[in-house]
Automatic annotation (TrEMBL):
It comes from the Bacteria. This is Cytochrome d ubiquinol oxidase subunit II. Belongs to the cytochrome ubiquinol oxidase subunit 2 family. It is found in: Cell membrane. Keywords: Cell membrane, Electron transport, Heme, Iron, Membrane, Metal-binding, Transmembrane, Transmembrane helix, Transport. It comes from Nocardioides yefusunii. It is a multi-pass membrane protein. The chain crosses the membrane at residues 6-36, 82-99, 119-141, 161-182, 194-215, 221-240, 247-269, 297-320. Pfam families: Cyt_bd_oxida_II (PF02322). The keyword Phosphoprotein does not apply. InterPro entries: Cyt-d_oxidase_su2. Its main location: membrane. The keyword Transmembrane applies. NCBIfam families: cydB.
Amino acid sequence: MELTTVWFSLIAILWIGYFVLEGFDFGVGMLLPFLARSEKERRVMYNTVGPVWDGNEVWLLVAGGATFAAFPEWYATLFSGFYLPLLLILVALIIRNLAFEYRGKKDDDAWRRRWDICLVIGSWLPAVLWGVAFANIVAGVPIDADKEFTGNLFTLLNPLGLLGGLTTAALFATHGAIFVALKTDGDIRHRARATATQLGLVAAVLAVAFMVWMQVKTGDVASAVAFAVAAVALLGGLAANRAGREGWAFVGTFMAIALAVGGLFLALFPDVMPSTTDTAFSLTTTNAAATAYTLKVMTWVAVVFTPIVLMYQAWTYWIFRKRITVAHIPEPTGLRPEDFVDAPATARED
């Protein structure tokens, strides 16, 4: 197999890893106002993803870095053409990460409420925009002979792109609800399971419509098989959720997202960014790739370091595998508003 094909496959795997792991992260943040009914339940939801959210984002960093190094033409066209949506995603991820870091620093309801809003916005926005972006990448966008994107933000907001955004948002919300049910106990667990059933039906309808549309537009036999198995996995996950088998339900949504993203990359290959202006202008794994020497060095680096990263992340999930309930949540330890008002002047100067 050529190294260009190897690296296209590795980048596809990195995006699959990002969406299946960060997908439930997004879902937990998206559902925070709907599943948590008290401060302690909100903290339970934060703690379900607290030990793993930053590790999940590593997959995005590596996917972006690998694209830059292995396919510089793809990276240049994608990140310049999709500048505004990718910037919005970046800003959303930053405010979301700040919510995890700073929410507990101050024992004040208004303070926590503002960071909760940041978490919700920072989860919904990427969940929608990633779907819009990938629907356009696979279906094709206007690219000229100089490999430059000639559209704008509204070019991306076409019916297929918007359906892609709604699909990823619904899938991630369902994935997140099932993860909350898997990681908690008590009222919030039952509430999450019921929510997952309702959201899952919406996600199934949207996902089937999106995959059929993509298959008709640009798919082949391999992508059709992947999409079909993804649909079966999603329905199986929802059935397991109704039966109270949350572990199998999570496996179902995990596999559904993985196979759906894999199907998109199968439909895309050998292009990496098709042109709707002229197929001769399309970026492919050949004309967008780095030199053979660069790909060879990258391959050896990946062979050495990928197992280490995977083992560390698996160890993290194993360590924090137990369920969390409101009984595990201690009283707030952040600074109180009066700590700022009553602090001695000398202490403030220090």
